[in-house]
Design goal:
The structure is a homodimer of 240-residue chains.
Chain A lengths: L1 H4 L4 E4 L8 H15 L7 H20 L8 H16 L5 H8 L11 H11 L1 E6 L3 H11 L5 E4 L10 H10 L7 E5 L2 H8 L4 E5 L15 E3 L2 H7 L10
Parallel strand pairs in A: 1-2, 1-4, 2-3, 4-5, 5-6
Protein name (chains A, B): 2-haloacid dehalogenase
InterPro entries (chains A, B): 2-HAD, HAD-like_sf, HAD-SF_hydro_IA, HAD_sf, PGP-like_dom2, S-2-haloacid_dehalogenase
Family (chains A, B): Belongs to the HAD-like hydrolase superfamily. S-2-haloalkanoic acid dehalogenase family.
């Protein structure tokens, strides 16, 4: 594995969960909305989990071709409105509108901006996310995340782990998969990337999913500094 | 104008010529290739101008629908091969192959990386270029240019000044054109941007084209520091 790692030229980064705290930020916004509505904020974790579950399910239906393409922003809006209606949550229209755009305000993890800036000195650094481009642009601006290239599943109307999204990165940037590493906190994202010949780096994040005992990722890192320490220090500038 | 400028939230940057020295870098590579081939390097300016002219002409034919989509990388390769054959330039296959990829090695202007990093603290910073995405990724990595989002005419198979490219940025990032400024050293790029309601900033660069006396750009800057000084210091974070 160590020998292979020396070949890395490009890092493809998952964003939601990996560079920004999606779960915590959304739960906080749901909690604030409930408090402002005079409702019980302790429901926020349960409701935001339910929201995340419905978003995943809609994305799965898009990937399966069972429903038409819907951007993640549209999915967020539709699903929070459903949940509010079905659970009888007393949020007025402005509160629901604010929650619908919560995806644009996810907090970066404290190490994300600096690590990304440092890794960009050595590697081609590319976002490969299920968030749509306006959301990625807003999160990048607010979180100080900056890139050599930014790609979204939106460009091929599919969501990771659909193969079209990994192929998008390989094809659009003409990358050698054997010199490209997917960085994510989601084991499912890395397993799918590995199926396309990509190297994989798992980064543990609070609230994330641990790898299965059978997962074999090229790097398992406790945070982005740990990842940077496990990557080669010298990289051929033309390697892609 | 000064009042309007205060509304800027997003800067769309032309890259070739504006952030990297396309003309000088290409002429240098042509000169080196001629020298290595034992040929007269003083032809390099003439040949590289001829090359640029043919690239522009091919892009015009793509925009006019007279030839099929061809990426800028492919256009560069085809046109240098044509020129070498027609002018009887004694370059062997490896020398031609190296010139064909010269677009990936354009030198950044000395102020580009730092200015872009500084402007990214205030504005949404987006590349909007006729270079294809692999080229933009390589130029950004080598030149230390980093972005919140990177867009290429390749995504809509058209070249600026074709309207589809400006519409791509407005549509994909859901930008308000009245809060968006195109930054370029090419007057033709800014004139086309203005037709879509975008604000415009002309940045003078060595070897570039001066504005016409009738051009009315929102900002005319001598370099990127001058541009930064003419832009507002306080920007609403959610303004797009």
């Amino acid at each position: 594995m160590a020998g292979e790692r020396r070949r890395v030229g490009t890092l493809l980064f998952d964003v939601l969960g990996t560079l920004v705290d999606e779960t915590g930020s959304v739960a906080d916004e749901v909690g604030s909305a409930l408090t402002e509505a005079g409702s019980d904020p302790s429901q926020s974790t349960r409701l935001s989990r339910e929201w995340a579950r419905r978003i995943s399910e809609q994305q799965r239906l898009v990937n399966a071709g069972e429903i038409a393409w819907t951007s993640q922003d549209q999915v967020r809006r539709a699903t929070i409105n459903e949940i509010a209606a079905e659970h009888g949550i007393p949020l007025d229209r402005p509160a629901l509108e604010r929650l619908a755009t919560a995806g644009h305000r996810l907090r970066p993890w404290p190490d994300s901006a600096a690590a990304l800036a440092s890794l960009a000195e050595r590697f081609l650094t590319v976002a490969l996310s299920n968030a749509d481009l306006p959301t990625l642009a807003d999160l990048s601006r607010q979180g100080g995340l900056r890139w050599h290239c930014v790609l979204s599943g939106e460009l091929v109307r599919a969501y990771k782990p659909h193969p079209a999204v990994y192929r998008l990165a390989l094809r659009m940037l003409r990358l050698d998969p054997g010199r490209t590493m997917m960085v994510a906190t989601h084991p499912w994202d890395l397993r799918a990337a590995a199926e396309h010949g990509l190297m994989t780096a798992y980064v543990a994040r609070p609230g994330g999913t641990a790898p299965d005992p059978t997962d074999q990722f090229d790097i398992v890192a406790s945070d982005l500094a740990d990842l940077a320490g496990q990557l080669p220090t010298e990289v051929d500038a033309v390697r892609r």
